[in-house]
Amino acid sequence: xxxxxxxxxxxxxxxxxxxxxxxxxxxxxxxxxxxxxxxxxxxxxxxxxxxxxxxxxxxxxxxxxxxxxxxxxxxxxxxxxxxxxxxxxxxxxxxxxxxxxxxxxxxxxxxxxxxxxxxxxxxxxxxxxxxxxxxxxxxxxxxxxxxxxxxxxxxxxxxxxxxxxxxxxxxxxxxxxxxxxxxxxxxxxxxxxxxxxxxxxxxxxxxxxxxxxxx
Amino acid sequence: xxxxxxxxxxxxxxxxxxxxxxxxxxxxxxxxxxxxxxxxxxxxxxxxxxxxxxxxxxxxxxxxxxxxxxxxxxxxxxxxxxxxxxxxxxxxxxxxxxxxxx
Lengths: 215, 102
Prior knowledge:
With 215 residues, chain A is mainly α.
C-alpha cells in the first residue's frame, strides 16, 4: 500500500475521531447494562465493527428480546454492507486472505471519505478504517469499565439510543419506498409491542416489509 | 454458551461475510437490482421499528415516560440539522432533567 496515501487517510479521519470514541464508549456502557460482559462487548466491537447493528443487538438484549431477535436485527441492519463493499471491490489489492481481512475496514465513514473525490481511494479507506477500528474498540473497552459507575437511566441513556436510531433513519427517508417501509414497520411494531414478547415486534416489522417488497 | 456470546459470534461472522462480499466473493460484479432494492428498505424499516421499541417499548406494554420527551427533542434537533452527537446528548439531557425534576 502507498504509505503516504495511508497517512493521508488517517489524517482525513482525525476530525471525526471523537465520534468512534464516544459511540464506542456508549456501546460499552449499554453492553454492560445488557449483561453482555466486558470481553464479549469488546470482541463484538473488534469483529462486527458496525455501530448501528451493535447498538440494535445490545438494546434488544437489554430489553429481554433474546438472541434470535438480536441476531436478526443486527444482521439485517448490516445487510447494507454488501452493496457498499461491492462498490469498492475493485480497489482492494492482494490475495484473497488479505482482501478478506482488509475488507473489514469498510465502515460508513471510511467508505464515504474514500469516495469523496469521485473515485474510491484505497489508502483513504484503509487509513480511516484502521483509525476508527482502534478508537471504536478502545472506546468500547473504556465504556465497559465505567459502565458500572453510574445509573444509565439517571443520565438519560435510554433516551439517547432511540434518538440515535431516529437520526440514522432520517437520511434514508428520501424515497417513497423507504418512507413507506419505515411507516409500516413503525406501525407494526407499535401494534405488536403490547401483545408480543420483547424482540419479536422488530423482527415481525422487518419481515412484513420484505413480504411487501416480494409481492 | 451464553446468549451474549451467541449473538457476538453469529453477528460477527455474518458481518465479516457481508463486508467481504465485494472484495472477496463478487469481484467487480454488481448486486442484482432486486437484492439492491431489498437492502434499500431493510435499513429504514429496521431503524423505524427500533425507534418505536426503544421509545415506548416496555415489558409487553407501551410505556410513555421521559424517553418520549427526549426523542421529541431529538427529532427537533435532527430537523435543525444538529450533528449526531448533539442529537443524542440533547435527548439524554432532556430525559435526565425531567427525571430529576418530576
